[in-house]
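Homework help board

Subject: predicted structure for assignment chain

Our instructor gave us this sequence and asked us to write out the predicted structure in token form, then describe one feature. I got the tokens but I'm not sure how to describe them. Can anyone check?
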Amino acid sequence: MPEIIEYARSKNVKIIVWLYSSDVNRNSAYKTAFPLYEKWGVAGIKIDFMDRDDQQMVNWYHDIIKCAAENHLMVDFHGAYKPDGIIRTWPNMITREGVMGNEYYKFSNKMSPEHNVKLAFTRMLAGQMDYTPGAFLNVTKEQYKNQTPAVVWNTRVAELSKFVIYESPLTVVCDNPDNILNQPGSDFLKIVPTTWDNIKFLGGYPGDYVAIGKQSGDKWFIGVMNNSIGKTIDLNLAFLPAGNYEAETWSDTKNSNKEPKEIRKAIVSIKSPGIMKVTMAKDGGFVAVIHKKE
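My token output:
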């Protein structure tokens, strides 16, 4: 591990250790392991497969987070119950699953564009969620089936929109790097932040669509996610101070209904106050990065 961590450090990368919950809990192994992780230079831990929310397990969460904080480790709980406010006491607990996220495409028929839109109005109200976006094997509803590697029933741009819409200071990308590197949309993943200075709800309705604007420094990132019915919406730009702006956009194409991996990139001039029209394919989406013109 020290060799791996040192190599990562040379690439300006920090290491998070994935752990099986039963191993962490066996004979309170975490009390010995966490100080060792800090000594090695590990940044955090991701613990999986708790799959319970009884009182004993809830107490265990508190013990784990407290011990992690004492050893300067961030915590991501996968296989977890929904957030309960503990992050206010222990801000090192930065995200958790507790959501029917991308991995369910492998084995469930409950996933849909409508479900993904609803999450922004329901589960996300409880707090950060480790949905694990970033599935680049995008297919149509007709092509979709449960399999490994997982294919996802939405357009590539809809997948990009999850990085803006879903709240998770640690965003874990789900797909194999070979499916992402140098593919359409991978450039957006290189620039989208995970923490924000300001957040604005720009429109939508549960199960229909959702539009969110998030500010990072002098830029605004826009994410719009659609349900399974193609549509054009008006985004009111009044959240921007008055002036002229430039927007770099990633949009669905006219062919995205049949080829969901297709993306149309453009740079457009916009003005606030004003309206930006956004056209999305079925199962589609839209993302943009906006900055003020000089």
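Reply (TA_rk): Your tokens look well-formed. For the description, you could write something like this. The radius of gyration is 20 Å. That's the kind of observation they're looking for.
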